[in-house]
Structure formats: structure tokens, C-alpha cells
């Protein structure tokens, strides 16, 4: 599988107050499809997205539908801009070329991000290219260095989604180490891709659990955004919920607080 190096974007770590440092035995994880910063009111507003992120006080964030220097979003490097607005470190992974720039995924984190790679996922010739953005995060304390994975799967083709899940599992489903996988999986709780993931991954945001609907953001009817981890016996889920943000994007953000048990 081809792996492509991606550019590190350093956030302004000094903007995070010293007394706001996260506990090292827990990890605050957020996943958010930001719809290139365009809200349900039709306004393009990255500052609004940044406020949603900051309010959750995350340690690590998976962002989907992120633009980089495209015409439609004013030639702004959205990952870099969100790094500045939130005081976090950032990595961007390009899925496709778009309007003179790129479009894809980003990871933000309080911690330095290392070893970033983009892995291509299977898809048909005329479909939008899909990827996994892989980074290493080192929370410190009892937490080991962990592999954080961000993805956004095919939206209109179930069999392709299943192949994409199979590729993710091939790459990471049985590998040694600690892993967190987050993103817009475009898959309902009872679907084949979600059932396939459950074989090797544990869900912080349990499929089908009440209160975890994410789209459309104004009146959510579907759960398609998830946070997962493995190995299951090394993590404990302390909290998992959907943040009630109706306007900033067409998706609601998903939050999980996970504890490293180290058993």
C-alpha cells in the first residue's frame, strides 16, 4: 500500500493555558466532519468551527472534508488556520486535487504529531478517492505512544465501503500497539461495514446507542460518525456523546473520553 508523507503544521501551543493540560491517563477524542467550514446557514466560517473544537477541550481531533488552498474556500489552508485558531498541532492528508488545491483529512492535537502517512483505500475509477490519515500521538504518562487514524469512507456504495473497511483492518486490525480510529464512516449501525469492524475494534461510540445520531446536524436521523479503539482490554470508555452543534457544519461532532487501563 502506497504511503505518502504529509506536511507538519505547527499550531500555536502557547495559546493553550498551562492549567488546561489534559490528564495523561485519559484521552479526549473528537471527530468532526466540518464540511469545509460551511455551516447549515450557508456561511463559510472556520472561526466558528474552531470555537466548537475548543469548547470540547480535545487532546486529539479527526477532521473530515478539509480544504487546502481551494478556490471555493478563498485559498485558505484550513488545517493550518484551524491550528492557529485552536492552538493545536496539525497534519493534513490530501485525498484529491480540488480547485487548484487539495481536499481531504486533518488531525489536530495538543501533542506533537509524528510519522504522518496517507494510505489509499480501494475504490472504483469514477469515485472520489478515499484515504486513511495515520499519525503517531504521544500523550505521555501511563499512555503509550498510540497510532491515531482518521478516515472518511465512500458515501454511496456499500460494497466499496466494505472493501475500504477490509483494507483498514488489513493494515491495522491485528497490528501490535494501541490504536484509535475515528471519522465519518458513512455507515449505519447495523450495516455490514460496522459489523466487520466490530471483529477487531471496540466502539467508544456504540453503534445504535441512543443519543449518538450525527447527521443532518439540525435534526439528526443517522449515526455515521464513530470513534473506535483497540485492543479493547487496554482501554475503558469513560464518556461518549454527540455535541449538540446544529449550525457550524452539516454533521454534529462526536466526543469520547477514553482511559488507558494498561491491563
From TrEMBL:
A cellular component annotation (GO) from this entry: membrane
Molecular functions (GO terms): endonuclease activity
Gene3D superfamilies, A to Z: Endonuclease/exonuclease/phosphatase
Assigned keywords, A-Z: Endonuclease, Hydrolase, Nuclease
BP GO annotations: GPI anchor biosynthetic process
Domain Endonuclease/exonuclease/phosphatase: start-end pairs: 30-251
Signal peptide (UniProt feature, chain positions): none
PANTHER family from the UniProt entry: CALCOFLUOR WHITE HYPERSENSITIVE PROTEIN PRECURSOR, ENDONUCLEASE_EXONUCLEASE_PHOSPHATASE DOMAIN-CONTAINING PROTEIN
Full protein name: Endonuclease
Taxonomic source organism: Gemmata obscuriglobus
Amino acid at each position: 500500500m502506497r504511503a505518502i508523507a504529509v506536511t507538519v503544521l505547527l499550531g500555536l501551543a502557547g495559546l493553550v493555558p498551562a492549567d488546561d493540560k489534559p490528564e495523561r491517563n485519559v484521552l479526549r477524542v473528537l471527530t468532526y466532519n466540518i464540511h469545509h467550514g460551511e455551516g447549515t446557514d450557508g456561511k463559510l466560517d472556520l472561526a466558528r468551527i474552531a470555537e466548537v473544537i475548543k469548547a470540547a477541550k480535545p487532546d486529539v481531533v479527526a477532521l473530515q472534508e478539509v480544504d487546502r488552498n481551494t478556490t471555493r474556500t478563498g485559498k485558505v489552508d484550513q488545517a493550518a488556520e484551524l491550528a492557529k485558531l485552536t492552538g493545536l498541532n496539525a497534519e493534513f492528508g490530501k485525498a484529491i486535487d480540488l480547485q487548484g488545491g487539495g481536499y481531504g483529512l486533518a488531525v489536530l492535537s495538543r501533542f506533537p504529531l509524528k510519522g504522518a502517512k496517507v494510505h489509499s483505500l480501494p475504490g472504483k475509477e469514477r469515485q472520489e478517492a478515499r484515504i486513511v490519515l495515520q499519525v503517531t500521538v504521544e500523550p505521555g504518562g501511563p499512555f503509550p505512544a498510540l497510532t491515531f487514524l482518521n478516515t472518511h469512507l465512500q458515501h454511496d456504495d456499500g460494497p466499496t465501503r466494505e472493501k475500504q473497511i477490509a483494507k483498514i483492518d488489513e493494515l491495522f486490525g491485528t497490528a501490535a500497539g494501541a490504536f484509535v480510529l475515528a471519522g465519518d464512516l458513512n455507515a449505519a449501525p447495523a450495516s455490514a461495514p460496522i459489523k466487520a469492524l466490530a471483529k477487531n475494534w471496540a466502539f467508544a461510540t456504540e453503534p445504535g446507542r441512543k443519543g449518538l445520531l450525527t447527521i443532518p446536524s439540525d435534526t439528526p436521523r443517522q449515526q455515521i460518525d464513530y470513534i473506535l479503539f483497540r485492543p479493547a482490554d487496554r482501554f475503558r470508555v469513560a464518556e461518549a456523546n454527540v455535541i449538540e452543534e446544529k449550525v457550524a457544519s452539516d454533521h454534529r461532532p462526536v466526543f469520547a473520553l477514553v482511559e488507558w487501563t494498561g491491563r
